[in-house]
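Dear colleagues,

As part of the handover before I leave the project, I'm documenting each prediction I ran so the next person doesn't have to rerun anything. This entry is a single chain, and its sequence is reproduced below.
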Amino acid sequence: MNTRFDIARLAAALGGEVDGDKVKAPGPGHSAADRSMIVWPMPDGDFRVHSFAGDDPIKCRDYVRQKTGQPAFEPKQKIPRGALDIQASLMAALASQRQDAAAPTRTRIINTYDYCDADGKLMYQVCRLEPKSFRQRRPNGSGWIWDVGDKRVPYRLGELLKFPDATVLICEGEKDADRVAELGHCATTAASGKWTPEIVQALAGRDVFIMEDNDAAGREKAASTALALHGTAKSIRIVRLPDLPDKGDVSDWLDADERNAKRLADVCLDAPNVDAKGRG
């Protein structure tokens, strides 16, 4: 394909949205709300595609071509009559090459984290993939739609509702929230760090401690979380764990010394309250 893609026009043509350098969109035959297909425009004007729903990559590529007004793939040369076995071999090889190009990285789910409503019904999951990445999906009765949907809730909502007056430790991810909860603390997070109004409201009137990861991204996320909760939470503190290695998180800190589990509450209480701009 020689046409260079404008990523915004590509997203519009596929009924999806831009996500960094790629487009998330419904795959062929999926509902408009589905986001199981990812398309990467390439510098040479070509594109790559991957389906988390397991759709045929060749079908996905032809679907993208159709939606963007490009002709379906056709071999450049005709195979001589009577050489059907050669034709079959060539087509199989071509399909293999196109599949490899369409899915540059094979992924598998290694863990899932459930987000449930107030009645304990599963609303959506965050899936941790290998190689490391994260995807979100929600049940549709017979399978999965690979997005969260319109309504969001905080992680471990059931515990928040069970202990309405408890102080809440906010972690950057679900793994850390589970680890902190194992120590008897009330812990939560928000999928992809998106603090929507309904998630913020679930922490109204609470004292919250934001567990900051030790890197630039972690500091930025902690500050943005504090800003989102300002005016709704009763008090906000950003906790910078002592002797935390570069890029470390609260799980790393707890793993480093078994005594840190008992120290965690004191370290949190020593953290200063933050102001309206998220500064301690």
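The chain is about 30% helix and 20% strand. The mean pLDDT is 85.

All the best with the project,
I.
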